Amino acid sequence: MVPLLLVLLLALILFGAGFALKALWWIAVIVLALWLLGFVMRSTDTGGRRGRWYRW
Questions:
Q1: What is the dihedral of CA 19, 24, 30, 34, to 10 degrees?
Q2: What backbone phi and psi angles, to 5 degrees, belong to 44?
Q3: pLDDT 10s digit of each residue in the chain, 56 long?
Q4: Among 21, 13, 53, which residue's Cα sits nearest to residue 35?
Q5: What is the distance between the alpha carbons of residues 16 and 18, in angstroms, rounded to a whole number?
Q6: Does residue 53 contact residue 42 with C-beta atoms inside 8 Å?
Q7: Would you list the DSSP string of the chain?
Q8: What residues contact 53, with CB distance under 8 A and at least 6 apart?
Q9: How far apart, in Å, are the Cα atoms of 5 and each of 14, 15, 18, 39?
Q10: 20 to 30 Å CA-CA from 35: which of 20, 26, 28, 52?
């Protein structure tokens, strides 16, 4: 009974890790898309140059 419970627990942990990693990949893709949009759509300053779109 104990080995069966250990195998089930291992399967549950691996399923949770796989779901979390897939969710993190989707978050990374969304952040990359937002970064690229911010880079492309940055505004111009008074001299006509493109300014930084980030604050740091």
A1: 170
A2: -95, 150
A3: 888 888 888 888 888 888 888 888 899 999 889 888 877 776 666 555 666 655 55
A4: 53
A5: 5
A6: yes
A7: -HHHHHHHHHHHHHHHHHHHHHHHHHHHHHHHHHHHHHHHTPPB-TTS-B--SS--
A8: 38, 39, 41, 42, 43
A9: 14, 15, 20, 51
A10: 20
Model pTM above 0.70: no
Tokens of residue 43, six digits: 């505004």
C-alpha distances out from residue 51 to 38, 39, 47, 48, 54, Å:
11, 10, 10, 9, 9
Token output for 48 = 């006509």
**Residue whose structure tokens are 């250990």:** 6
